[in-house]
Amino acid sequence: MGSTEVVKTIVQCDFDGTITEVDQSFLLLDAFASGNWRQLLIEYREGKISVGHFNTRAFAMVKEDRQTLVNFVKQTAKIRPGFHELVAYCRREGVQFTIVSNGLDFYINTILTDIGVKNIEVFAAQAQFTPRGLEVKYIGPDGAHLDSDFKEAYTRLFLTNGYRTVYVGNGLSDISTAKHAHWIFARDELLNLCKQKGLKCLPFVDLNDVVRDLKRLKGEDIILKP
Hints:
By secondary structure, this protein is an alpha/beta fold. About 45% of the residues lie in helices and about 20% in strands. It contains ten helices and seven strands. It has a seven-stranded mixed sheet with strand order 4-3-2-1-5-6-7, with helices on both faces.
């Protein structure tokens, strides 16, 4: 008698500008960076440095203590509508929901705790507070330090582990990993890049749109079902 293979599904979700309405790291850098971090942003957007290199150098300019930054994050973070609904939907349907972000772990975890969202797997830059500034490290699935392709490394891990992958994102740093996903939900710059590269994607305004389309695709047996 043959066995039926159960297909596992994972929603890999970006954080800054996807779960939050604006990029929380940019808010922090605007408020606290002691140098010209936007010049580094230009270099990143021109392809001269990786996003990991950008964040490492930019956040080294931030020398405030942890509590000051945590308080700032709590006061300024704005969550995109539909986030709670997306998490709840994934839990009801037995879908793994994982945040993979080039942002910093301390503010992602601060925001999730502040809005009452618990037990979500988060892979992000590890931030250490020092008198010299924030030290930022990207650690890949194998424990090795990464300078680039952080999100993509985890996407490849999920695929290797047999997951059908749904990607949700908004920015330039999402395109290299989104192209490996089975389904892409995109807005803003990622949406434009998908169109330019001929990648099929579903646009969204808020995360309720993602929930709606996941339900529709499931109903059509296109996604989330073996």
